[in-house]
Design brief:
The protein is an alpha+beta fold. Helix content is about 25%, strand content about 20%. The protein contains four helices and ten strands, in the order H-E-E-E-H-H-E-E-E-E-E-H-E-E. Strand 2 (about 65-70) and strand 3 form a beta hairpin. The termini are far apart.
């Protein structure tokens, strides 16, 4: 028995509605924007400089800028981050992290050093990516770090450890990552997206030093 015209109309309408409903998630997913770096730049609030700036530092708060931007975490999702740099290097630094973000290079965390009370060892143990911190060189007391100028950046400090002038590894638990032949997410290698992007803006990598600092990039190519 054939359904009546009104019944067929109702069945057709229900089938169309079901098809539309089933298609909505795909349509919404297709319309969702791709994740973006979304970098913004502002003057540095004083609370973001607690324990990291003091009178007599080579650059003052007016010379610094706070960059808020997204990064890809090790969990494969996007997280908000903060980085304080010298005002003169904002554009090239954003350029580097734009390329890293596009390549989905993973970053463990990106917090200002005030969150660690200026303690470089604590920040390294936390695998933090950071820039400005008015301090002496870790493992070389009495020598002012290039981070004091806001034009040096440390990236993924566990996967990219630092060996000081005395041969001590920082952070201590990262000694296994001195084996640079390993393939580890977040590890910086010659020619990878981070290394290449830094080279493109004229910054140099501490990984080339006799006492390697695999986490460190600076505008003048030095740690101090």
């Amino acid at each position: 028995m054939r359904p009546s015209r009104s019944t067929a109309h109702r069945l057709g309408a229900l089938a169309l509605t079901a098809a539309l409903l089933c298609g909505w998630p795909q349509a919404i997913a297709a319309a969702a924007p791709d994740p973006a770096l979304d970098a913004t730049v502002e003057a540095v609030p004083l609370e973001k400089l607690v324990d990291t700036y003091r009178a007599g530092c080579p650059v003052g708060p007016d010379d610094l800028r706070l960059i808020r931007m997204n990064y890809w975490g090790y969990d494969g999702t996007v997280h908000p981050g903060e980085l304080i740099v010298h005002k003169n290097v904002v554009d090239p630094v954003v350029e580097v992290f734009t390329k890293a973000f596009a390549a989905r290079f993973p970053i463990a965390r990106m917090q200002v050093m005030a969150d660690f009370h200026g303690d470089d060892e604590a920040a390294m143990r936390a695998d933090n990516t950071s820039a400005f911190n008015c301090r002496q060189v870790t493992g070389d007391p009495g020598t002012e770090s290039q981070h004091s100028y806001g034009d040096a950046i440390d990236i993924n400090t566990v996967e990219n450890p630092y060996v000081d002038v005395n041969g001590q590894v920082h952070p201590g638990e990262a000694a296994e990552f001195l084996d640079r032949d390993r393939s580890v997410p977040g590890m910086i290698r010659p020619g990878d997206v981070v290394h290449s992007a830094m080279q493109a803006i004229g910054w140099q990598w501490g990984g080339r030093w006799d006492n390697p600092d695999y986490q460190h990039f600076s505008r003048n190519g030095r740690s101090l």
